[in-house]
Structure formats: structure tokens, C-alpha cells
Amino acid sequence: MIVLGLLMAPVIGIAAEAGKGPRQPPRFENYRWIIVSYFDGTSLIDSRASSSIIFANGRVQGTGNCGALGGDYYLSGGVVRIHAETLLNDGPCFEVNLKEAQAILDALNKGERRIEQRADRIVLRDTTGAVQVVLTPGQ
């Protein structure tokens, strides 16, 4: 087994250099994330709207179906504490959209969130380990 590992090491190094190695996930901060699903108080559900969020320099900004999202966040190691609000626009905001926007804010805002970073997503969990928000890289 050791011999096989030594023989494979140069091949693995060449593949990584050629850009064929494992992709690194984007960093949590300074990147646009799409909110794929959120905990609505009962279960994890898929977002109906195309909502996105960016964490940069202690500020959180985003878009939703009832207007912009804005606020602050505090990052310490793998834990984030978020305080965000929906900034309603002048256009119509249907009750179902407003309820979803509020549920997303609740999933983000209620306490500390542990950041679990995977290759294709970020999962924000509460202190009990329950998934609160799932984010995927934006385009």
C-alpha cells in the first residue's frame, strides 16, 4: 500500500496542477450566495423566490421577493451571528412572499449559526445542530 501511495503521489500532484484536482468551495465572506432552503419553524423547505445574500465587512446584503435584505453579522471562527431585516420596496408584496421573507429572516437571525462549508454549499446550523439555512454559490 505504501508503494502504491508513493507511485500515485506524482499523478495526484500533476492532476491538481492541471486544474483537475478537487475544487475548493468559495469563502463564506465576499461572495454571493443563493438561499436554497430555510427552516420555517417546522421543517426545512425550499425557497420559492430567488433570494441571495452577501456577507462582507460585517454587513449583510441581499435580495428577496419583497425587497432588499440588509443588516450586520459577526463572524468568529466557524460561527456567525446575523441581524438582518427586509427593506420593503414600494411595489406589491403578497402575503405568501412576506411570510417566506420573515421565515428566512428568522432562520438567519435567531441565535448563533455554525457554518458548515461543503464543496457545493454552505449549511448554517443552530446550536442544537438543526439546519436553519442552506446556501449555494451564486453566479
SSE layout and pairings?
Blueprint: H1 2-17, E1 32-39, E2 44-46, E3 52-56, E4 59-63, E5 67-76, E6 79-88, H2 95-109, E7 112-117, E8 122-125, E9 131-137
Antiparallel strand pairs: 1-2, 1-3, 1-9, 3-4, 4-5, 5-6, 6-7, 7-8, 8-9
What does this structure look like?
- It is a single chain.
- The protein has helices at 2-17, 95-109, and strands at 32-39, 44-46, 52-56, 59-63, 67-76, 79-88, 112-117, 122-125, 131-137.
- With 139 residues, it is of the alpha+beta class.
- The protein has an eight-stranded antiparallel beta barrel.
- β5 and β6 (79-88) form a beta hairpin.
- The protein is globular, with a radius of gyration of 19 Å.
- It starts with a helix and ends with a strand.
Quick summary:
With 139 residues, this protein is an alpha+beta fold. It has two helices and nine strands.
CATH class: Mainly Beta
| pLDDT < 50 stretches | 1-18
Number of domains: 1
Topology as H/E string? HEEEEEEHEEE
Portion of residues within helices = 10-25%
List how many beta strands DSSP finds: 9
The second-level CATH architecture is Beta Barrel
Radius of gyration: 19 Å
* Largest beta-sheet details: 8 strands, antiparallel, barrel
Q: Counting H and I runs of at least 4 residues, what is the number of helices?
A: 2
Percent strand? 35-45%
**Class computed from helices, strands and strand pairing:** alpha+beta
Query: What characteristic shape results from the CA principal axes?
Result: globular
* CATH fold-level topology: Lipocalin
Q: What spatial order of strands do you see in the largest sheet?
A: 1-3-4-5-6-7-8-9
Mean pLDDT: 81
Alpha-carbon distance between the termini? 42 Å
